[in-house]
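Example 4.3 (complexes with small molecules)
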Amino acid sequence: MDHDSATSSGGPTPGTIPLDSAEFSRDPYPLLATLRDCGPVQRVRTVNGRTTWVITGWAEARAALADARLSKDTARFFAGRPSHRNLAPAVSRTLLATDPPDHGRLRKLAMKAFTPAAVARLEPRIREIAARLADALATRGSADLIEEFAVPLPIAVICELLGVPEGDRAAVRRWSNTLFAAGDPDAVVDRASHAISDYMTGLIAARRDEPGDDVLSDLIAARDDEDRLTEPELVSLAVLLVVAGHETTANLIGNGMLALLRDDTLRSRLRADPGLLPAAIEEFLRYDAPMTIATFRYATEPVDLGGVRIETGDVVQVSPGAANRDPARFAEPDAVRLDRSTGHLSFGHGPHHCLGAPLARMEARIAFEVLLTRCPDIRLTDGTGAGATGGTSDGASDAVEWRRARL
Ligand code: HEM
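Answer. The structure with protoporphyrin IX containing FE bound is encoded below.
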């Protein structure tokens, strides 16, 4: 069966679903539901002409994320193909783009800098940064919550984590936005990849000479028996931490606050009982996934999944946004409910499960606590309700009306 045109007459047409359109960025859920109605694994042509399998069913998404036949090794996939790209190796060859056995070795070393103790050590400093940002908001009549809180908090945290000096943070944020958003021309993205890679190389050299109380120094020192991270591995991990941990966490804070600002009862409940925040954060992660669609995978052999055959060489994308609202897994999937046992796939699943998940959860908890206590009268200036999901927070203004919150 040709899944590009798998549709009954008058029904949804997966082949024409505009996954990279402004409409999708504004509110992906109706389109993802239409796609899921066609079947849990669908072949889709994107606006730029690429063909990809999109996995929208929860059970199929979970299986795909843990399936070793679906490779993350981009270099292997593109080997021998002509390319006009000039991405820095630190960006194209990361932990996230590595398969076993290399992946396990790199991940074990990287985990040494993300122990519960290392993450807990950051809490007072995160609280300080969040309080400073919230106090600046509270002095104003109205403010852009994304630009002035949700984005600056995670970038400041990652820069603290890596020991990036204050004066360099704006540049790091710019490069990271360019790499994550994927909306710029290839040449601009390539240049940003080299700039951030050169910057991290310099920072690592400085930390090697003079270790500090930061994760970068921990990673330089990280050893496993006699194994340690090589220089290129260190650089690429530092770049990955910035790119993977910045926009995603900003989206969690932004999407979660939007859900809270739309629900007065929930907001009052959380203000009265901050002990509910961890459950609320899991539900925000499910309800409005910070990454609507996760990173690419490539089939290294045929894979039968969700009633279709994915052929060797096919590109596969799992959609946590769709899987998290699969009615086969979650009752009332379009409602925010704190009484669920979660099981969302927002942090992925399997060997590449998000390394920074404990940090992101802690940042979000602090962000909501601080906003609810320091800005008690916070509310939306308008209720248009388009979220920040999946897009760049520096992106199109038509998608971000809701960001202006009255304080
Ligand atoms: C991997 C989501 C925050 C570091 C991933 C993956 C997802 C994800 C879905 C797996 C991608 C895939 O398998 O295709 C998120 C979300 C976050 C978040 C939703 C915030 C709410 C962070 C933070 C950091 C981080 C704060 C670190 C500072 C990483 C790394 C990987 C990863 C290093 C690669 C792990 C591996 O390949 O083994 N993240 N992330 N993430 N994330 Fe996160």
